[in-house]
Amino acid sequence: MDTVPAVDHRPMLTLQQATQLTVRLYGVTLTEISTLPSYNDQNFFLVTKEDNKYVLKIMNSKESMNPTRMEVQTLAMSFLHQRGVPSQIVVPTTTGKLMSMEEIDCGQGAQTYCVRLMTYLPGKTVAESPVTVQDLYQIGKLAAVIDTTLKQLVSPNLDVLQSNEEMWSLSNIPLIDDYLSVMDGDPPQKVIKAVVKQYKSLVAPRIVSLRKGIIHGDINDQNIIVTPSANGRHEVSGVLDFSLLMIDCYVFEVAVTIAYMMMENPSPLDVGGAVLAGWESVMVLSEEEKDSLFLLVLGRLCQSLVYGRYNVTKYPDNKEYLLTTAKSGTLLLTKLWEMGKKNVERKWFTDAAMFIDK
User: Fold this and answer.
1) Active site residues
2) With 80 as the cut, is the pLDDT of residue 181 above it?
């Protein structure tokens, strides 16, 4: 029996297709266009004749099936930008639309993709920058500012942000079990199984009682842009990628931020306390939230490793980007697990309590 090949939802436009699309929708003349890395969407860096810089973002066809969700993401970015958060804003098309649903053939039949043109934010990602603990404090603080600001976001469509179906939600860590075969018996598989088991018994039962709201959901070292300031420190000049915006537990935002900021940091154990202190300067965690933090951080590392490996089986041509976190993530997960909850928490909470925002 013949099997139907899986549809590749990623947009795979050529530079020529992206150029023609931009000219048609936005009426600008381009002097430069190049590709930017992405997980499963497609991003292009553009420079116009007037020397304005933009990012053309083409969402994958699967997520493009929910244009209402894209509208809420776009609204949230604009809402935050107006309130001082350095998020991108969307540039309208020549007909005044903030996004355009485009039917495009990338070589395997036409699919519909959501297209948006966004302002370009200067700087380098945290992954490319030698950030200090003071920088990490500011990133933790910004994460909390984003989430508290989003409490005021008003839209009749906020229910599209419910995270029940989202595999990357930390509510859905048990879903990892369904994908574990991709680890192929590698040593971290044992740790991942143990983390999921502990999560099910210790964290899952509490989720109903944890505080919830709209969270960014993906404050990682690729999505925070920084520029150098004085004394080797940096200022956050951009927050990118609102595609995982969801209604979920606030402590998940802290856990995701800590997990990813540890990834490329030469002193990963110093990260948690600085991020936590920054977050708690805006929103203090309850004892229950604090007690869940260790397993939530490990849970995100597990998701990143397993889903990264799974997506490589689907998109082998994007292997380098998809496995960005694999090496450091594996070492980190193993190290934290071996140290144990009590020792890691003691380090994080002691550092946070003693942190001084200089």
Assistant:
1) 218
2) yes
